[in-house]
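WARN retry 2 of 3 for item q-0093 after timeout on previous attempt; input resubmitted unchanged.
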Amino acid sequence: MMEPNPNFAFVLLNGKNEISYWIKDHPAIMGGFYEDAFQLDDNSMVNAVIMKPMNSALTPLNPLTFQLIQQGNNVINLIDVLHQHGQNHWNKVPCAN
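OK item q-0093 returned
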């Protein structure tokens, strides 16, 4: 199994100045902070950090480690992690229990 340049969204309640982000051990990423990026079940809108590695692939032996770093006093309030499965189509990443 291999996926070239996988795209992930980290849905959160934080503002742009409250978080920084990167993919560990990658020299370059494509990504950004998007306000009102996703709609919740109660119709409220939430922000997201969306990022993917440049010129890299996701494989069982080459995992990706995403870093979300708190900036300031507000803790990171992560709601969900999504994986892109097509244009404007995102699926939840299952949590390990």
